[in-house]
Design a protein that fits this description.
429 residues; mainly alpha; 2 domains; 3-stranded antiparallel beta sheet; globular
Length: 429
């Protein structure tokens, strides 16, 4: 048996209750809370250290009063460029909790106030307070969300607006929470797959830097004393590279930063972004993963929007803005123009070359049968599974490639340093 600390909302009284449960698992704790007529907000396992800390706190000095000076640990540190951000994880948790509260029968305003009190992110807490004020003033939830475009994107605002108009806000919030959870899970898997090659690449750069700056110059001194000149061409090339890096360290670093800056600037322009996104779709090994992620995102976003009651043209505009890929965005724009002219969705999807024939056929069937949202959801689920398999294959393939890459770099430098010794041995014989 384990101890779980919970915070839940009583739907009848509208008050937040806290306590502990001794159950076998977190799922059992959630089930127990539902039996008690409580809507869970937070359920966390209680560690033994937490009990010890509680005991020490009771025996220790009394808690500080209002107006007391803040210590260094209590000070809020704001970093320029990073402060005021709301992470995707925080927003997803908020959406899920709000969906649970509204489904439990709690009024929207009360749910926002409850979540505001327990929110730890200062930016999101402030935003929730402002949303509550908008609703108290007679405004709608979607109007309040539209005032915070940096936190809530067009997808979020449009779905909430559609839910308000249809009188099914709690259903839309649940769909939105599911959408965000699945999107975050896919993104997390892709990031985890890319972590290893990036880490190996950084290690390779560091090893090369150490060898070129500190190790190889010592070999150069030894070779000049023993052989004078006449070094093998490959060895001389490595020594020249070492001298360039060592003697022009600032120039080398400046060149690296200039290259990164150039790519960043290219990525900011529309044409450059299009070229990079096009390359990412058709790049070996990585391309299939990027393609599957883009298709899954397109299908799930469009399906969720249409199923929530958002008009098709507005939904396509939102999908275009949230696609994250310029190639896909242009394809969606073509679809939007086609639908606007009274034509079908299928033709521009097929003409784009991004969407496989299977996806195009399923969309065609959904359009003819009037079952487009469900068909798009099936496409999204299928490609989510494809992404999982592709990421696993990518991970298993990249690992030996990066090991071989690192071995070739280090091995080449070692061979270059041993070639003069082999030449000397051959000369002695």
């Amino acid at each position: 048996m384990a101890t779980f600390q919970y915070e839940a909302l009583n739907a009848k009284s509208g008050k937040t209750e806290k306590g502990e449960l001794n159950v076998a698992s977190q799922s059992e704790a959630l089930a127990r809370l539902q039996e008690m007529g409580l809507a869970p907000i937070k359920v966390d396992p209680v560690k033994k250290e937490d009990h010890k800390k509680k005991g020490k706190a009771k025996r220790g000095a009394p808690q500080g009063k209002k107006g007391a000076k803040k210590g260094i640990g209590d000070m809020e540190i704001k970093i320029p460029g990073l402060s005021g951000r709301v992470k995707e994880k925080n927003l997803t948790i908020f959406t899920r909790q709000l969906a649970q509260l509204t489904s439990a029968g709690l009024p929207l305003l009360s749910g926002l106030r409850v979540l505001e009190r327990q929110e730890k992110n200062p930016t999101l807490r402030r935003v929730l307070g402002e949303l509550s004020e908008v609703i108290e003033g007679g405004g709608t939830f979607s109007e309040g969300l539209s005032q915070h475009s940096k936190v809530f994107n067009k997808l979020f605002v449009s779905m909430v607006k559609a839910g308000e108009l249809g009188g099914v806000l709690e259903v839309v919030l649940d769909r939105l929470a599911q959408f965000m959870e699945k999107a975050m899970r896919i993104k997390g898997k892709v990031k985890a797959a890319m972590f290893y090659p990036i880490a190996v690449l950084v290690v390779a750069i560091v090893i090369m830097g150490v060898l070129l700056v500190f190790v190889i110059p010592k070999f150069k001194d030894v070779f000049s004393e023993m052989m004078g000149g006449g070094l093998p061409e490959f060895t001389q090339l490595v020594l020249d590279i070492s001298d360039t890096v060592r003697l022009n360290a600032m120039g080398t670093l400046s060149g690296m930063f200039a290259t990164l800056f150039t790519f960043a600037m290219i990525g900011r322009s529309n044409f450059g972004r299009y070229i990079l996104d096009k390359m990412s779709l058709f790049f070996p090994i990585i391309g299939p993963v990027v393609e599957k992620v883009a298709i899954a995102r397109f299908a799930r976003t469009l399906g969720t929007l249409i199923n929530s009651g958002v008009p098709i043209l507005q939904a396509l505009n939102i999908v275009k803005d949230t696609s994250g890929n310029v190639v896909v965005a242009r394809a969606v724009q073509d679809v939007h123009d086609s639908v606007k002219e009274g034509e079908t969705i299928v033709a521009p999807l097929e003409a784009s070359g991004v969407f496989p024939p299977m996806v195009v056929s399923m969309v065609d069937v959904g359009e003819k049968t009037g079952d487009m949202p469900q068909m798009l959801e099936k496409i999204a689920d299928t490609y989510d599974e494809e992404v999982d398999r592709a990421v696993e294959s990518l991970t298993s393939l990249i690992e030996p490639i990066m090991i071989v890459f690192l071995a070739v770099i280090v091995g080449s430098i070692v061979i270059a340093m041993f070639l003069p010794l082999i030449k000397m041995i051959e000369g002695i014989e």
